[in-house]
Amino acid sequence: MTDSSLTERLGAIPTASISDALDALGLRGSLHGIGPLDSGSRIRAVGPAYTVRYEPITDEPGTVGDFLDDVEPGSIIVIDNQGRTDCTVWGGIMTQTSSARGIAGTVINGTCRDTAVTLEQEYPMWSAARFMRTGKDRVRLVEVQGSIEIDGVTITPGDIIVADSDGVLAVALRSAEDVVTLAEKIERTESKIVDAVRDGTTLREARQRFSYHTLQSVK
């Protein structure tokens, strides 16, 4: 089960600082190539991962699945469609259903469509691309709530997903305490640097004073 206090703390930190903390700890978590549908600076979502995996059809009919009925409010749906950009696994019905049920957002290693509906609903969405062609009879639902891998990052159900205008990352539960503690330190240090510069210190001096260049090194 996801620790709500860790989720709340991570939700208050930009993905940039969380990514720096992951780097410092030698952990992978940033999902390259997946960006927000709405690039506004206030777009943000945080919550436990609900994982979904698709694969190309073989000799069995394809389906987009009805897994939404089982997703808990506050979850972030993370769909791995192997990065395919030639067909979608998410559309307007799914957006409106998720929004009505209090799902925190969706992350797709693949494409979404009906983007006008998603924007009108102000539903948080991150994907690799936008494309209108259906995934029906092109892909099939293989598994829900199993481990998936996106961009070399293993995501298991309940891992904490943080997404904002810069992109998406996943924080494994076993590492979340270390990651959030270091990310909070990075945020505090960067705030001190900015305050010092505003008080007349040069950027070089402020960075040296607060050991900016060692922020990505674990002491």
Secondary-structure map:
Blueprint: H1 4-11, H2 15-24, E1 35-36, E2 44-56, E3 76-80, H3 92-100, E4 105-112, H4 115-121, E5 125-130, E6 139-144, E7 148-150, E8 153-155, E9 160-164, E10 167-171, H5 176-198, H6 203-209
Helix pairs in contact: 2-5, 3-4, 5-6
CATH topology of the largest domain: Glucose Oxidase, domain 1
How many helices in DSSP terms?
A: 6
The separation of the N and C termini measures: 30 Å
Range of helix content: 25-40%
Order of helices and strands: HHEEEHEHEEEEEEHH
Superfamily (CATH H level) name of the largest domain: Ribonuclease E inhibitor RraA/RraA-like
- Ranges with pLDDT <50 over ≥5 residues? none
CATH top level of the largest domain is: Alpha Beta
Q: Which geometry do the CA atoms define?
A: elongated
Q: Which structural class do the helices and strands define?
A: alpha/beta
CATH architecture label of the largest domain: 3-Layer(bba) Sandwich
Number of strands: 10
The tally of domains stands at: 2
Q: Hey, roughly how much beta strand do the residues contain?
A: 25-35%
Using only C-alpha atoms, the radius of gyration works out to: 19 Å
Task: Determine the mean pLDDT.
Answer: 91
Main beta-sheet annotation: 8 strands, mixed
Could you characterize the architecture of this molecule?
- By secondary structure, this protein is of the alpha/beta class.
- The protein has two domains: 28-171, Ribonuclease E inhibitor RraA/RraA-like (Glucose Oxidase, domain 1, 3-Layer(bba) Sandwich), CATH 3.50.30; 179-214.
- Helix content is 29%, strand content 26%.
- The protein contains six helices and ten strands; from the N terminus they run ααβββαβαββββββαα.
- The protein has helices spanning 4-11, 15-24, 92-100, 115-121, 176-198, 203-209; strands at 35-36, 44-56, 76-80, 105-112, 125-130, 139-144, 148-150, 153-155, 160-164, 167-171.
- The strands form two sheets. Strands 1, 2, 3, 4, 5, 6, 9 and 10 form an eight-stranded mixed sheet that branches. A two-stranded antiparallel ribbon has the order 7-8.
- β3 (76-80), α3 (92-100) and β4 (105-112) form a beta-alpha-beta unit.
- α2 crosses α5 (176-198) and α3 packs parallel to α4 (115-121).
- The longest helix is centred in the C-terminal third of the chain and has 23 residues, at 176-198.
- The relative contact order is 0.23.
